[in-house]
Amino acid sequence: MYLNQRNNRIQIWMNDSEADSLNAKVKRSGLSRESYIRSLMSGYAPKELPGADFFALMRELHAIGNRMNQIAAKANAIGFIDAEQYAGNAGELRETTQRIYEAVMLPERME
Questions:
Q1: How many CB atoms lie within 10 A of CB 43?
Q2: Fold assignment, 3-45
Q3: What is the per-residue pLDDT across 52-72, written as a single tens digit (0 to 9) for each?
């Protein structure tokens, strides 16, 4: 949905404690306050933004997977190793990386 389609402004009043709590949760999520509230309204609880270590590790896992794919392609071309098994392992690495990303980054459906 584009910003120009959001033409209903809603203003709410909070006490200091409520505002502090909301602002702290928004900051930890890395979202804007509006996105955070819209996510809650859609039934999803935003997760806290992971630390820099998470992103560094994910980059390393992606790099490992890319190198595995390059090796598998070359090995398959010269018939040196079981490329099918190797490609299966590379796929498993990609799937595991995706599951880690989803577990840490994607909001969870609220009950």
A1: 11
A2: Arc Repressor Mutant (1.10.1220)
A3: 888 888 888 888 888 887 887
For the whole model, what pTM was predicted?
Answer: 0.60
Under 8 Å between Cβ of 39 and 31? yes
Q: For the chain, which residues score pLDDT lower than 50?
A: none
pLDDT score at 2: 60
Cα(54)–Cα(104) distance, rounded to whole angstroms?
A: 9
CB 70 within 8 A of CB 83: no
| Residue 61 structure tokens | 């896992």
Q: Are 108 and 47 in contact (CB under 8 A)?
A: yes
Give SS3 for 38.
helix
Element of type H or E holding 88: helix 83-105
> Is the torsion defined by CA of 58, 64, 68, 71 positive or negative?
positive
